[in-house]
Amino acid sequence: MATSGIVLAADDYGIAPGVGCAIRELLQRGRLTATSCMVVSPDFAAEAPALGPYLDAADIGLHLTLTRDRTLGAVMLDAFARRLDPKETALEVDRQLDLFERAIGRPPAYIDGHQHVHLLPVVRDAVVAAAARLGAYLRVTDEPLSRIRRTGVATGKAAFLSLLARPLAREAARRGVARNRGFRGVRSFTEPGPFRDLFRRMVAGAPAGTVVMCHPGHADDALRARDAVVESREAEYRYLAGDDFPDDLAAAGLRLARLKDALAAA
What we know:
47% of the residues lie in helices and 14% in strands. It has twelve helices and eight strands. Strands 1, 2, 3, 4, 5, 6, 7 and 8 form an eight-stranded parallel sheet that branches. It is globular.
């Protein structure tokens, strides 16, 4: 049976040692094909060298973070009110790109955003410009609303992110910047039932070139101090590391790939 290539991308590499450990374990087992790095995290510099063995096997990206010292609500208000200074925003994007390249030894394969800040006005302009300059692709969260409804997972949140991403998608197309063809993995982190059931609903009917976002991790004190998403990371890790995951992919007619390979085979 023909299969469609999808990118399974773990967010938040570097946020805490337990998350980094879990992501590397999944990369080693071929259960992920991308991860994006929080370069402003206190643990990132120590965690970055351990990604070395996976640089040519997976897409390693920048997880642009603008909410380390501010709430997401405050950043969004300033973005939509056009109170973010374009030059300062571009400088911050470049600063995080420089931290990434110093630690990893090469530019990122792609750029996305922690809490999807790369979709916001002003921020998206700086991100598209950086991606065009570096030859990186962008993770774009637009997905047809009909497909979002069919998954039945966090439909309101997924629809909001899809609509928010439309200007970024248009600018990426105008600048000739590569991007994913679909986006899945949005969740509330309060869903009942096993993650396996949720994941199968998320990826059903995913076209080739879809990026599926995930958040695996081992819970530790550093993670508990820095993020509200803790225990669900353990559940995601157990499923992705287990025997059911590859069987579920095969049953859905899907296989894991890097984005360039998924698009080339589409």
